[in-house]
Amino acid sequence: MAADPLSPRKQPVQARSRALVEAILVAAARVLEQSGLEGFNTNRVAEAAGVSVGSLYQYFPGKTALLAALVRQDAAAFGEALTQAANQGATLRETAEALIDVMIAHQSERPALARALDFAERDLDLEHEDDTVMLALTQGALARHAAELPGVDFAEAAQDLMVIGRALSDSGIDPASLKRRLLRAVLGYLTGP
Amino acid sequence: MAADPLSPRKQPVQARSRALVEAILVAAARVLEQSGLEGFNTNRVAEAAGVSVGSLYQYFPGKTALLAALVRQDAAAFGEALTQAANQGATLRETAEALIDVMIAHQSERPALARALDFAERDLDLEHEDDTVMLALTQGALARHAAELPGVDFAEAAQDLMVIGRALSDSGIDPASLKRRLLRAVLGYLTGP
Amino acid sequence: MAADPLSPRKQPVQARSRALVEAILVAAARVLEQSGLEGFNTNRVAEAAGVSVGSLYQYFPGKTALLAALVRQDAAAFGEALTQAANQGATLRETAEALIDVMIAHQSERPALARALDFAERDLDLEHEDDTVMLALTQGALARHAAELPGVDFAEAAQDLMVIGRALSDSGIDPASLKRRLLRAVLGYLTGP
Amino acid sequence: MAADPLSPRKQPVQARSRALVEAILVAAARVLEQSGLEGFNTNRVAEAAGVSVGSLYQYFPGKTALLAALVRQDAAAFGEALTQAANQGATLRETAEALIDVMIAHQSERPALARALDFAERDLDLEHEDDTVMLALTQGALARHAAELPGVDFAEAAQDLMVIGRALSDSGIDPASLKRRLLRAVLGYLTGP
DNA sequence: AATGAATGAGGATTCATTCAT
DNA sequence: GATGAATGAATCCTCATTCAT
């Protein structure tokens, strides 16, 4: 009965429905970006999407689910981009650079949105779910350079680097120096003292 | 009129007033810890403090200000503890350990509270304000070991380490391995490749 | 325009239509039984019937009409069963027993449904309409035993007994003793002091 | 935490508060009487009482509780009146008359309200709670005339008579003949065949 | 200064009903 | 006729804030 309040209500099959869901998500992202979690409410999102509240609730069982969908959508896109990057680079440094570039790109595109989504992800305890993919990805990328990383626990390192990467890219640090500093943190962690 | 909504309304001079403010803050922390930002509301806090809402508003211009006071109080306490640690340790490693111990202690004492405060700090954009002290502190600690850190930009490093330290200690990583991993991240960053 | 909101919209002539109406009514009964008046809504009924809401509205002008149809259907079935019983029994007592058996059977079959329908009947002020048949029936049954009932106003008695019978059978009284008690009430009323 | 949704939220101690609660209950009764359970909603009641919704919720945890309070208030008043009557009358018939007079009075004063309250009482499953007193009362009244009632199970009879009495007085029967018919039903039940 | 009752805007969610396809 | 997506008014309830006492 009381279904999962974080999952969408039904899969939009028809083309029109998919467009509607898409419109809602786009509007939701905009509202979240401009007004923060504070100002994020279903009525506002529906209005911004040019849709009735009822329609919103047709596809999302509640405010939380909408937020969760946003988070997941972003995580998925991010994961995809990371996947590309993870397989690039002949050296550890090159791979690190590729991954960092993705992180920075993701974050600098819509900083306020990225921040709010990070926020929401924690709030909804969606971290674990989303991070599994990225963790695996990162771990794989590390494993590819095992030769350069003697004695490193890949699982552990992947987790730490994920946390560090996120935190730094989301910290508001001057974008110009961000890449250099992230690189330092990552390579330092891995090949450090 | 439109006064700073983040600052306390007036300095409580009388002893009784100070006690009242203290009681409110203690209660606020408890409420925040137990119910999260979601359940944090002025009526609840006032009740938990055994005080009337009116009195709460006598000393805090609004909910936000109360939250801000909590954040600042915590930051101050944290800063104090860090100050102690920053001056300890003959070697860089030792100093780093001392600082990390403080971070972990601060975080592990009331994890839920620490998390919510971190949350709130960001939400209220209080980061800059609070971090100034810690930044200076960290920077000083680094400077003390300048010999071991050739070519390091202390200001920059302090900022990065602060971010990294916070993120890792708040990440929910197994407390048992947390210190080791934090140390690795910090020393790696500083003395890395 | 403002048509009677309690009457069905049109007589389903086609076989398929009749089946559809039947399916809706069956589903409606089930929903009402399982979820009460509270949870009784057109969307739910339509879904339970495996029919679109639009179709439901094709045959019933509104929620109320659907409910009314349910009430009437039940009343009709009940009336039919009573008709059988009303003509049985050589003595007053025997006839009373037959009628009471029907009442109890009707009520105990789907108690929750019976209750909700009673509820709805009152809510929609359908009592008068439905009871006409039963009243006539009861009155007839009494008349058959006029010899045993000197000085009794059959119309009045029929109404009173109807009310009493319904109330008692719907009162949640232990089914084991229900018949005896109903009999006592009825015969007491009729042949009393 | 999730306290009893049927009980009031706090006892109004101050005179003003009591007046407010009283005003709310009076308004609630009026709304219920005029608009039925259908149109009974907290906003409407608050408005009718000249009070803000917030104030209503200060004293009643929800719509249901408000309704329950109304039912209980009515039941209490009714019980009180019955208590008076139950001790009157030298003969069974006289006592029965006294009780029936109270029932009729209670019902005929505000018929629509009485009906809706009966309705609500069932809806909220408050029957048992309220009826205990009346049952005991009735049982006592019967016991007082035990000599006239050989072989009668007072507990059972009290329950049956309660049900019968309510049903008849609430049935919309012509008030002029109501008393006579009720008396017949009651005495018939008790002293019948 | 303290109290806490009162306010009411705001926000989540439901569901009867319509109508374009 | 059938469909079911879309609508949005209606309703419940919360909580930041004020103000009379």
TrEMBL record, chains A, B, C, D:
<keyword id="KW-0238">DNA-binding</keyword>
<dbReference type="InterPro" id="IPR009057">
    <property type="entry name" value="Homeodomain-like_sf"/>
</dbReference>
<keyword id="KW-0804">Transcription</keyword>
<keyword id="KW-0805">Transcription regulation</keyword>
<dbReference type="InterPro" id="IPR001647">
    <property type="entry name" value="HTH_TetR"/>
</dbReference>
<dbReference type="InterPro" id="IPR050109">
    <property type="entry name" value="HTH-type_TetR-like_transc_reg"/>
</dbReference>
<feature type="domain" description="HTH tetR-type">
    <location>
        <begin position="18"/>
        <end position="78"/>
    </location>
</feature>
<dbReference type="Pfam" id="PF00440">
    <property type="entry name" value="TetR_N"/>
</dbReference>
<feature type="DNA-binding region" description="H-T-H motif">
    <location>
        <begin position="41"/>
        <end position="60"/>
    </location>
</feature>
<protein>
    <submittedName>
        <fullName>AcrR family transcriptional regulator</fullName>
    </submittedName>
</protein>
